[in-house]
Amino acid sequence: MSTENGCVFCGIARGEIPAKKLYEDDDIIAIDDVAPQAPVHMLIMPKAHVSGLNQLDELPDETLAKMLRAAGRLARERGVRERGYRLVCNCGQDACQSVPHLHIHLLGGRAMGAELA
Description:
By secondary structure, this protein is α+β, with helices and mostly antiparallel strands. 20% of the residues lie in helices and 21% in strands. The protein has helices at residues 8-13, 61-77; strands at 21-24, 28-32, 40-46, 85-88, 104-108. The protein is globular and about 35 Å long.
């Protein structure tokens, strides 16, 4: 599914594509991942389109800080904060960034092991 600019996450942020919203404010949104890799797997992203980590100059510092603060709150709400959780941000094709819109994966609810994803 795509939207006017072809970005699925922009469509979700605008409410054009349905998703289970876990958190939302004026600048960011958090949703459950549709293909979870752990019992807890959500995505936290800015509403404004930023392709990835290499374009952080296009994102206000406060928005990035909001994403990280939301991760901590959501980890607590989902019961994974105390035992631990992993934040993953893929950047580019070789890192398996499947949607070219900056997003952070929050994974938890199981021992992660040494693998990175």
